[in-house]
Amino acid sequence: MTEVTETFESQLSRIHLALEDENSQEVSDVLEDLEPAEVALLLESLPLSERIKLWEQVPSEDDGEVLLHVHDEVRSTLIEDMDPEEIVAATASLDTADLAELFEDLPKQVAEDMLRTMDEMQRTRLQETLSFEEDSAGRLMRTDAIGVRSDVTLETVQRFLRWKESIPDNTDNLMVVDRIGHFVGVLPLARLVSHDQETSVVELMDADVDVIQGDMKARDVATLFQTHDLTSAPVVDNDGMLLGRIVIDDIVDVIQENSEQALMNMAGLDEEEDLFAPVLPSAKRRAVWLGINLLTAFLAAWVIGQFEDALEKVVALAVLMPIVASMGGIAGSQTLTLAIRGLALGQISKTNSNWLLRKEVGIALLNGVVWALVVAVLAVLWFKSMAIGAIIAAALVINMLAAGVCGIVIPLILKRMNIDPALSGSVILTTVTDVIGFMSFLGLATIFLL
């Protein structure tokens, strides 16, 4: 058993100092005890110049695995620093699913060279995997599943496994197929070694197992593994032919990627963005959403401008105005976050969205009334005006109700339009709560105070 004795922060510090001092031996010492995923994290955590220096010292036999674990943008910078021969050599030991993940990021000439070096079976498997859409079970699956016939004995199966000399990692079941390759069930390895050798496979196999279609979304596969406590599952095509298998290791990667995507998208960023990318490309990416936000800010400012006379005559309105927009924004963000999470987990559908909307309206109304009373009392004490207290209370209730409704409706509409709610929902919600908050507060003030 390997004992973990050094934190990632310590490893990063050692690597940084070693690269700065050009101490190749120290770099090698750090890399020696690291897994490819840990090396990938180190590479992602270094500025470009240091990243290239470290990449040059990563053992060549680990190159392929490391490339798999880094984000797409970082992977592109590393591949640019490699010769075509190095890339082909780095990917030679990867299985089909891993190779498919890298294949589309490779330079065209390198990809063609790689295909030429493969045997017919490898090439066919890769092309079959690439025929599936990205983020589908077909891209996620491993094509190394061991298939056995249902009409043979356990002794025959064991003899077959001894002839193979090894079995793929994370194999807990053998896939049982008929004569032409249709999936019919699984044979757990535990039963294979614990029953009489003359027993036939059909007597011990499980026929009632969860089967995954090749075109199923990766996120739905992850949900299936989570809800059914699976460690592996067969993947089949529309005709029931066995294509491969998916194991829990692959699902952990999917869950992590989805979490990172949701977190980055809520800030309007690409989940593959390189933290240490150069200034210019990073600025360009972020400028898009800053521009969108600026347009929405001008819209809110335009609404305020329509009540210029009211603001000039009643200074208290300018002082209290941000409170209404802020409370609505916070209430809406809470609802929006829960709705996005529910959509991501598949918990929200047409059958329950109306109930959820009514619930959020109830919450918004209750919180709106409670906090409206608090704000009204404070406003009266501050500005000695019952009218201002009543107006800000009414505006607060209106805006919080709007925020609760929009927090549910906006992500549902965006989802129906095939737009990621995490990417654009917060921008739209902020605009709505600002506009409704300012309009209700200043509009009521114009009607009752002027």
SSE topology:
Blueprint: H1 8-20, H2 24-32, H3 36-44, H4 48-57, H5 63-69, H6 72-80, H7 84-91, H8 96-103, H9 108-117, H10 120-130, H11 137-140, E1 147-149, H12 154-164, E2 173-177, E3 183-188, H13 189-194, H14 201-204, E4 212-213, H15 218-228, E5 232-236, E6 242-247, H16 248-265, H17 279-305, H18 308-313, H19 315-344, H20 353-383, H21 386-416, H22 421-449
Parallel strand pairs: 1-2, 4-5
Antiparallel strand pairs: 2-3, 5-6
Explain what you see.
By secondary structure, the chain is mostly helical. The chain has three domains: 8-136, MgtE N-terminal domain-like (MgtE N-terminal fold); 147-265, Roll (CBS-domain); 279-449, SLC41 divalent cation transporters, integral membrane domain (Tetracycline Repressor, domain 2). The chain is 67% helix and 6% strand. The protein has 22 helices and six strands. The chain has a three-stranded mixed beta sheet. Strands 4-5-6 form a three-stranded mixed beta sheet. A hairpin with a 5-residue loop joins strand 2 and strand 3 (183-188). Helix 15 (218-228) packs across helix 16 (248-265), helix 17 packs parallel to helix 22 (421-449) and helix 19 packs parallel to helix 21 (386-416). It is globular. The termini are far apart. 31% of the residues are buried.
Question: How many beta-strand segments?
Answer: 6
Number of domains: 3
CATH homology-level superfamily of the largest domain: SLC41 divalent cation transporters, integral membrane domain
Taken from the alpha-carbon principal axes, the silhouette is globular
What is the H/E order? HHHHHHHHHHHEHEEHHEHEEHHHHHHH
